[in-house]
Amino acid sequence: MSGQRRSWRAARPVLWAVLLAGALVYLAIAAVVWRHASEALAHPPQQPADAALILGNRAYLRGKPNPCLTGRVDTGIALANAGRVKQLVLSGGVDKEDGRIEAEVMERHARAQGYAGPLLLEPASTSTRLNLAMSGPMLKAAGVRSVIVVSEPYHLWRVERLVGASGFDKEFDVQYAAADTSCWRRWGMLFKGALREPLAVVNNAFNGYLY
After folding, report:
1. Residue 17, domain member (yes or no)
2. Where are the beta strands (DSSP E) in 25-127?
3. Fewest C-beta in 10 Å: which of 15, 49, 130, 161?
4. Would you say 151 and 159 are in contact if contact means Cβ atoms under 8 Å apart?
């Protein structure tokens, strides 16, 4: 038996152990995200706020506005129609997959749905962390003091930790609204975005963004 083959056989148990540990970590994070998503859906925001901050997502899917994104906007519109918020803030920059600006896609959808209230656009951010960082100064300049952050259920566990780690919640009174989009209703945690979420959690934690 060659030395290379012996080395491979010796390394295989270690490799399998690493893969198993990674899978267990992934499943543990996914379970936490799922539980939190269910709680967020069951407990919508109760207090009115100055604005709903709607976080971006992929702009288009199969040639049409992404229902995972437009569903977030619909949740913001529902909050406005119920008198829970006074205005919508749409946060999302250039979609790397098709070049569209997420905030502008959200604005067109909101107007097409009949929303005639005030809108603010933050069209430059390319991550959840930047959604918060770039929207903050705009919100302060507009006199906003309280915010309902809107995103899909699977996203909110990480959003809450980014809010705390960044100090966003020291600048504003923050609540959260889970957008029960068609993507979530159809696939839940099996949706592509939700499947990626535990990896995003690990990446954010590794870079020191979550805590």
Report:
1. no
2. 49-55, 60-61, 64-65, 85-91, 119-122
3. 15
4. yes
CATH number at residue 61: 3.40.50.620
What confidence score (pLDDT) does residue 62 get? Answer: 84
Token code pair at residue 121: 């656009």
Within a domain: 198: yes
Crossing angle (nearest 10°) for helices 128-141 and 156-166? 60
In this prediction, residues 141-162 reach a mean pLDDT of 97
Q: Which helix (H) or strand (E) holds 147?
A: strand 146-151
pTM comes to 0.91
CA dihedral 107, 108, 111, 113 (to 10 degrees): -110
Rounded average pLDDT over 204-211: 89
Dihedral in degrees, nearest 10, Cα atoms 37, 74, 183, 120: -80
